[in-house]
What we know:
The protein is an alpha+beta fold.
Amino acid sequence: MRKFGKNLLFLFAAMTIFPAFGYTVTEKGEVFHVEHAWQCGKKQWTCNLEVEKRIYRYYKQEREHTSDDYMRYILSDAGRPYIADIVAKMRNGGRRAGYSDSDNVRNVVAFVQSMRYVSDLVSTGKKEYVRFPLEMLVDGKGDCEDRVVLMAAILHEMNYELLLVSLPDHLALAIRGDENMDGRYYEYQGKRFYYLETTDKGWDIGVMPDRFVNVKAELIPIEKRPVVYLRSYEVKSIDHNSQTMTFKIVCRVENTGPTASTGMYLYAAARASKQENASVFSEKMFDFDDFAEGQRGDVTLYLTVPRHRRVVFAMTVGGDNFEPKTLYSRVLNVD
């Protein structure tokens, strides 16, 4: 991952960012034609995108928008080709303009800051709605969370080290810089990450709104890891004799992204209680193929337990690249 240093500081200090806003979207069959226009320094920029409606609908209609796990928005697999296209266009345009690497970063800042700020309630009618980067590009507007998500997606694709900065009722970004830079920064694992405000125009690297100076922030490294949920389960007795009773357990598992889950398994156990050292009457393991981002599925397992016992069913989903999660049933009297 890259950082920027003294050269970038000079550029930002010498040339305050005052981006101009311009945005149009038209529909052509099953494609949105999107054009963004902005100003970075003295240069006018435009970026044209052809976005398939099916992918936009996938994000808009099929994905959750209320979670505060921002990684699954920033690093989403389905929208990454569009982010990579923007980065390629900015780099190619920057090369023709004689831009340095730091100029290219500055251009990303101007691009995102040029988009119109609008609250979730006004734009969606919902109190809380986090846009995926592709939604932000097509909608051309959003709140601080949406801007941060888009800027982080682009700068991460450019291979910069970034942190999300979670403040009271606000979200911002921080980008790694060197020790010779001025401005507000956070120390994280021995590195300096300089504050970046995305809500409005003209905020330089390291310039922080007064209300957040000396306010404790939660710093969240941007890393690609899936978030897998055990969405629901159903436990139903299906067979019994004088000694045992068999239960059918159906579990619904979903990978919400931002990348495929690997080495995923579902473990179900019939236990005497939730206690760690409780007796296990019966247990089963199911191994999955890799689950792509957004993939969900049901798994059916059967457990046989002795009669005349109190039983708790524990269902755990885990994998190689995410933390396990466990759901417990209520206590059942197996009579």
